[in-house]
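**Backbone geometry record:**
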Amino acid sequence: MEDGIIKTAPDREKAKSILKMVETTLEMIDTIDSKKFSSHIVKEYYEVVRELISVILLLDGYKTHGEGAHKKLIDYMEKNYGDFKGHEISLIDDLRVVRNKIAYNGFFVTDDYLERKKKDILMIIDKLRIIIYKKL
């Protein structure tokens, strides 16, 4: 395919296992105080979205690797899944950037950032799940 994306055999069992982990992460998020731990929740939501996109690639028979692998996941969705609108792709990429700031720079997001974005994040998660369940 393109640089950083490798053709692999689709792996439904691995996809199901990752999906199960995603569901437990979402359960965990629901138990966290969003005012106190908004940065952690944003980081976890990004990880959920990233894992769901990885599952889609896995079911399509691809995986990413190397420098910029997370960005390549987002690019793959943009190129191959036209049902994702520009603002949704932008939000996923924004979450990636914010997650990196949190993970590598100790950045804190405000709870109002989470409040403003949560509905759209959950809609993206639902959209990704629908694609996955159709493929499984």
Summary: The chain has one domain: 5-135. The beta strands are 5-7, 62-64. Residues 5-135 form a domain with the Four Helix Bundle (Hemerythrin (Met), subunit A) fold (CATH 1.20.120.330). The first strand starts at residue 5 and ends at 7.
